[in-house]
Amino acid sequence: MFSDYRMNLLQVRESSQYHFDNEDVQTIFEITRYIYQGEFAKVKKFYGEKVVKSDVGAVIGVMTDSSLIVEEALESEGGMNMCTALEKLKEKGREEGKLEGKREMILAFLKAGADTWMIKKASGWSEEEIEAIRRKME
């Protein structure tokens, strides 16, 4: 036996034609859509100085699969600035990119047969970090 409930299903990416009476729902859909479209300048333009409720920020973080935005929302009491959260997300991405670049460089050295001392000098990583990557490669 199944209940027959009517349900409206909306795609966030195609939600620009909708206007929601609830300001929080409108904010969630707009910011999420801008993030999916990579239009961070629009978030900054429209929400740069606005404080977004913490629970609204957490929903945006969940919808965009961003644990950093969720953390920022949970840490902020009462409200959060979306631009600050997006800047932190951007910085985290840069750091992860740098780390991945270093790992790729070390893997290239290892594949070329370079010893740990040479890799340590070239990368600035410790011997333990290099050996951990070497073990993963085996």
Describe this protein's structure.
With 138 residues, the chain is mainly alpha-helical. It has one domain (12-137). Helices cover 65% and strands 0% of the residues. It has helices at residues 23-36, 40-47, 54-63, 67-75, 82-111, 116-123, 127-137. α1 runs antiparallel to α2, α1 runs parallel beside α3 (54-63) and α3 (54-63) runs antiparallel to α4 (67-75). The mean pLDDT is 84. This is Transposase.
Quick tags:
mainly alpha, 7 helices
Rounded to an integer, what's the Rg over CA atoms? 22 Å
Mean pLDDT: 84
**Percent of residues in helices:** 55-70%
Distance between the termini: 55 Å
Number of domains: 1
Instruction: Output the structural class.
Output: mainly alpha
Overall geometry comes to: elongated
Total of helices: 7
Give the biggest beta sheet: none
Order of helices and strands: HHHHHHH
Number of strands: 0
Residue windows where pLDDT falls under 50 for at least 5 positions: none
Q: Multimeric state of these chains?
A: single chain
Organism: Claveliimonas bilis
Protein name: Transposase
Provide a brief overview of the structure.
It comes from Claveliimonas bilis. This is Transposase. This protein has 138 residues and is mostly helical.
Topology of this structure?
Elements: H1 23-36, H2 40-47, H3 54-63, H4 67-75, H5 82-111, H6 116-123, H7 127-137
Helix pairs in contact: 1-2, 1-3, 3-4, 4-5, 5-7
